[in-house]
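Hi V.,

You were right to ask for the full record rather than a summary. Here it is.
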Amino acid sequence: MRRFTTSLIALCATMGLAHAASTLGTNPSATQSLHGTPVTQAMVDTSRMTNNVLVDGPGMAFPAPYCLVSFAGGVNPISSVRGMGINNQSDPTLDASPSLEDFTAVVGQVQTGELVDISVKGKTVGDSPEGVKVYIDWNQDGIFDDLTEGYLIGYLMYSTGTDGSQVTASIRAPSSARTGETRMRVIKTFGRLMANPWSCNEGGSRWGQAEDYTLYVGGLESEAVFCSSFEEGEDGSCGTLPPSGDIVYSGPRNVVIPPTESGLGINFVTGEMSSEDVPGFDFAVAKGDPYLWGPVMFFSWGGGATPENNAGVASAEVRSYLVLGPGDTIGPASTFIRDGWGQSTAFLNYWRGMNGYLGVKFMNEATGEVNYGYVHMLTTAGSGFPAMILDYAYDRTGAAITIP
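Predicted structure:
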């Protein structure tokens, strides 16, 4: 089991091109920015596959088993890829990097059926528009199929690669996607096939660049992907934290937090999670615009007549919610704050993207006692969104709790 190093899926930033406004494309799984037409798929050495599933073999050099990409005229580089937990910045200098750059050590993640955003920046030359496309090998057969696995993101023009211009689109992971690691390719081209770049650029543009990444695909109900301790079991699945004594554990929930003003509210005792009003809610995550920071994640706290009893663990030196990990203890000795909308510095650790735990305290309406617990969350660098609550736990006796 991979120990995830980054958060779920990524920030959708504002489109940097004034003309990128219409919805297009022939692929029904993508909400895109400009017009495009399908092209042919790349080919792969099928000797590396068993039962139509990719088998990695020893001595396979990058990008095997996937096709090569080359640009005879020169490298007009990609400078930023953000999406599905990936936030990768690269050199925007012309001809300073390979035609196909190996970023397979950078791992993103997505769940089957999930709608996620991806944003791309890059260097362009003069007034020449360059098409940007993303390919994801959903069935892990070593082929980027244009009709089912290719997504036109949009066009870049008049960009230095660092000036904020970018193209953005939404991609929905097919519910039939094979779970586990697969390859994602981002390609930017200028020239004859600029309107719809081929994954391998066969006979296409003389200028451009491609970057390859690793993407981990998880099932919505897969405990092997999302579980509280991220430890491998003997059967290859993750271990979970079952209820033990007075510890109340939610079980794997894997609930996407809507990036809206209502967000997602939770009542820890009843287990209700909803974007609608949750009776007796203890904690909520939502999206707002605290002054000049832009639409970003923030928390709000319940507590009813005793609001001071609902709060999150923060740094004692700085009023900022901490990201906790295994071995950390939440209890009466912890420092808590209730900062919410408009108190921007409190959420910086969550805007940076995280896979960890928010320590909490709340009033248990069933016992009348303050309980201590934690919420396991994934957030994305930038705004915090897209984001997910994986599970939570608390001690119903009011005792301190340690994250396993």
